[in-house]
């Protein structure tokens, strides 16, 4: 008999929820609903070090809706985790307490390693990785996780403080703009390079795997801008062409002409450049986009309580 659960991902750019049915006999999940609320906690934390009172109220309203949704869909078990922005917020304990008090939902603040493990869990259930060496790139608002696998076994993961919202705030602090992303990438390579060198013989990584909303958006842009399909993978050449076409387009026009949400339009180029940098550094020519992420991993973790 199917067991209904929900998973909530409190990220730096949004708070996402997924309701799914778990089928224990097959260890498969059936997604019932997905939700997303544009609560950009990273803007507060990466600029001020705390989650502002206004953002806490937005988050409380979001969690109230999610709590009501759990009741409407008869969800008995909900697992909620918070990542980069909450990890770094000086008032994270207050945030967790206020959410619990207003919605009844407990929040776990997880580290980058656990975040990488949960996303890897989702990917291994979605893709056949036997006898393949892969590099998983999860692009978030506050951090990017780069995970190496051999088959379904995770061999190394590292979280880097180089998420898309953090990149925007760093540029703003330095009075720089999108055209100066190469400066941030140069700094990022000092940490990224050793991680790739230690875990990858360049000619043995079969392909990369990309997760996160920005990767899914880039897959759609392949179809929209390049008139190529399918949207489920990108070559490095295609990614580079998308970046070249997006850079001259103003954020307003990305919203109006490319039908992007405002909180996607301003981070899509930083996300693309970040993925391009990692692929170039690892000499990887192709990235698969399976359209799963942390929420899916959370649900899979609740099969036989894999934690």
TrEMBL record:
SUPFAM superfamilies xref list: Actin-like ATPase domain (SSF53067)
GO molecular function: pyrophosphatase activity
Pfam entry (one): Ppx-GppA
Ppx/GppA phosphatase N-terminal domain: residues covered: 24-304
Protein name: Ppx/GppA phosphatase N-terminal domain-containing protein
Organism expressing this protein natively: Bdellovibrio bacteriovorus
């Amino acid at each position: 008999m199917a067991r209904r659960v929900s998973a909530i991902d409190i990220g730096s750019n949004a708070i996402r929820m997924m309701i799914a049915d778990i089928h224990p006999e097959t260890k498969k999940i059936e997604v019932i609903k997905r939700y997303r609320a544009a609560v950009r906690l990273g803007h507060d934390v990466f600029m001020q070090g705390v989650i502002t009172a206004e953002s806490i109220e937005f988050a409380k309203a979001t969690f109230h809706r999610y709590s009501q949704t759990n009741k409407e869909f008869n969800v008995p078990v909900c697992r909620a985790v918070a990542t980069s922005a909450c990890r770094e917020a000086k008032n994270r304990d207050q945030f967790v307490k206020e959410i619990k008090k207003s919605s009844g939902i407990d929040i776990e603040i997880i580290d980058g390693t656990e975040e990488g493990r949960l996303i890897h869990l989702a990917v291994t259930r979605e893709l056949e990785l036997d006898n393949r060496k892969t590099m998983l790139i999860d692009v978030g608002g506050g951090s990017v996780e780069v995970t190496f696998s051999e088959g379904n076994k995770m061999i190394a993961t590292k979280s880097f403080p180089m998420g898309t919202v953090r990149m925007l705030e760093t540029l703003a602090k330095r009075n720089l703009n999108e055209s100066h992303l190469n400066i941030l990438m140069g700094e990022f390579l000092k940490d990224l390079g050793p991680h790739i060198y230690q875990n990858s013989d360049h000619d043995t990584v079969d392909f990369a795997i990309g997760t996160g909303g920005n990767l899914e958006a880039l897959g759609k842009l392949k179809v929209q801008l390049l008139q190529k399909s399918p949207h489920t993978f990108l070559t490095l050449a295609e990614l580079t062409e998308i970046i070249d076409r997006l850079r001259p387009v103003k954020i307003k026009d990305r919203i109006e002409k490319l039908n992007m949400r405002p909180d996607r339009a301003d981070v899509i180029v930083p996300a693309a450049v970040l993925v391009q940098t990692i692929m170039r550094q690892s000499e990887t020519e192709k990235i698969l986009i399976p359209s799963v992420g942390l929420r899916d991993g959370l649900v899979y973790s609740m099969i036989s309580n894999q934690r």
